[in-house]
Specification:
By secondary structure, this protein is an alpha+beta fold. The protein is 31% helix and 8% strand. The protein has 4 helices and 2 strands; from the N terminus they run H-H-E-E-H-H. It has helices at residues 5-8, 15-26, 85-95, 99-109; strands spanning 63-67, 80-84. Strands 1-2 form a two-stranded antiparallel sheet. The chain is globular.
Length: 121
C-alpha cells in the first residue's frame, strides 16, 4: 500500500529512523500507551509487543508511532508515542478524521503491510 503523497510530504525524511528509535530503542518494542487511547481495554501500560499476539484479538501486533497532537511535522520525542495498532486506531479515531490514510501511511513507513482491518472515514 503506497503512502499517499499528501501524507508522505508531511513526514520528515528521517521518519523511518525516528519511528524505529521510538518503537525499539525507547519503547523496547512494547506499546507505550498508558490509557491515552481511551478504549478502556487495559489499565496501566498496554502489554502488546511488536510481533506478538495482541491480547483480546490474538492478531499480530504491529507497533506504530502516534503523534499525540496528530501533527506529522511534530516529531519531538514528547509528541511521539509507540502504540500498537489497536491503541493507535482508537486514539486517532477519537481525534482524527484521516484515520485510515494516516494509519496506512504509518504502516507503510514502517515497511509493513497493515494486517489489521481499516475503517474508512
Ligand atoms: Zn496498545
Ligand atoms: Zn491503549
Amino acid at each position: 500500500m503506497p503512502i499517499r503523497p499528501e501524507n508522505k510530504a508531511r513526514y520528515p525524511k528521517d521518519w523511518p529512523q525516528i519511528s524505529n528509535r521510538v518503537r525499539f530503542d525507547r519503547a523496547q518494542g512494547r506499546c507505550e500507551c498508558a490509557g491515552e487511547c481511551g478504549r478502556g481495554t487495559h489499565t496501566g501500560r498496554c502489554t502488546n509487543r511488536h510481533g506478538s499476539k495482541a491480547y483480546g484479538t490474538g492478531s499480530i501486533v504491529i507497533l506504530t508511532v502516534a503523534h499525540l497532537d496528530h501533527t506529522p511535522e511534530h516529531c519531538d520525542d514528547a509528541n511521539l508515542k509507540a502504540m500498537c495498532q489497536g491503541c493507535h486506531l482508537h486514539y486517532d479515531k477519537a481525534h482524527h478524521a484521516e484515520t485510515a490514510s494516516h494509519t496506512r501511511a504509518l504502516a507503510a513507513t514502517a515497511g509493513m503491510e497493515p494486517l489489521f482491518s481499516i475503517e474508512e472515514g
